[in-house]
Write a structure and sequence with these properties.
The complex is a heterodimer of chains A (123) and B (186). Chain A has 123 residues and is mostly helical. Chain A is built from four helices and no strands. Classes of the chains: A mainly alpha (123), B alpha+beta (186).
């Protein structure tokens, strides 16, 4: 059961990473370097969370609840500093930094939502 | 515009989205959502680019009713690239120091106890050597050819070649009365 969920998540991560890579190449070819960097950043975040899911599965020893606790925990701790950076940028009306942090926060939000949807009924 | 500002501006312009934003603003002042609609990119991405453009001095903003309007800073685009290049470099002092060091190295290599060992084959080095010899001539004084030859002979036996090269390099000039030292242009 859990293997199926993990496999579904990994497939989703793979598709997301591939899409980011594709967008990155297209944007770079179109001389839109900064937007291409956003795609690189997004791709890296998907990749990191895919690795974390694998670690969660090993540490949770197949217990879906334990895996969920581990994984959801990382969707809260890692973006904490990004949220702080976003708030600080907002204080200084630094729209460029705000967008950089927002892109990262949006990806984690999306990952978490998708994980919860996939994991539903696994516990 | 300082060198740092010019680099920031050029970096900023080397992005298609930002160039498209500037093209839109060249038509009329616009707010973020309108630009996003025109260019097919998200509003936060437009804001991101506008911030970079504003930091580089390419756009300015002002409030109009509920909107923050953005406009092209035309002044910065009236500056020609030639003007930017001709600005005194932040590195100018360092370059001047390097030039002085190079000059001294050439002088040390070609002069020994005030005598020219050989005439450099390389034009850049010969120019430095000739400038040293030209220093032996006073400004605002006309020298007969014989005196010129004697002064040059103090440095090197081949005074004919050096005298000719001093004229060719624009360090000395001559007419029927004699030779004189040319003042460097400021």
């Amino acid at each position: 059961m859990i293997e199926q969920k993990v496999s579904e998540m990994n497939k989703w991560f793979d598709e997301k990473i591939a899409a980011c890579g594709q967008h990155d190449r297209e944007l770079t070819a179109d001389d839109r370097q900064d937007e291409a960097v956003f795609e690189k950043v997004k791709g890296n975040i998907y990749d990191n969370y895919r690795t974390m899911l694998g670690a969660g599965v090993r540490i949770g020893k197949g217990d879906p609840a334990a895996v969920k606790k581990f994984f959801i925990g990382w969707t809260e701790t890692i973006p904490a500093s990004w949220r702080t950076a976003y708030e600080k940028a907002k204080e200084h009306n630094d729209l460029a930094r705000m967008q950089t942090e927002q892109v990262k926060l949006d990806v984690v939000h999306e990952i978490r939502e998708h994980f919860e949807k996939v994991w539903e009924g696994a516990e | 515009m300082t060198e740092t500002e010019a680099i920031q501006l050029f970096k900023c312009l080397s992005d298609k989205s930002r160039l498209q934003i500037l093209k839109s603003l060249a038509i009329e002042d616009m707010y973020v959502e309108r630009l996003a609609e025109r260019l097919g990119i998200s509003a936060p991405t437009v804001s991101f680019h506008l911030k970079k453009l504003a930091d580089a001095g390419a756009v300015t903003s002002y409030k109009s009713q509920y909107y923050m309007m953005y406009s092209l800073n035309k002044d910065i685009f009236h500056t020609s690239i030639l003007e930017i290049i001709q600005e005194k470099s932040d590195e100018a002092d360092l370059q001047a120091k390097r030039d002085a060091e190079y000059r001294q190295k050439v002088i040390n290599a070609f002069f020994e106890y005030g005598k020219l060992k050989s005439i450099p084959a390389q034009q850049k080095k010969e120019r430095i050597v000739l400038e040293v010899i030209a220093d032996a001539f006073e400004y605002d004084r006309i020298y007969p050819e014989r005196e010129v030859n004697i002064i040059i002979a103090d440095f090197h036996d081949d005074f004919c070649t050096i005298r000719r090269d001093l004229v060719a390099e624009g360090l000395l000039d001559r007419n029927s009365k004699g030779y004189w030292r040319i003042k460097p242009q400021k």
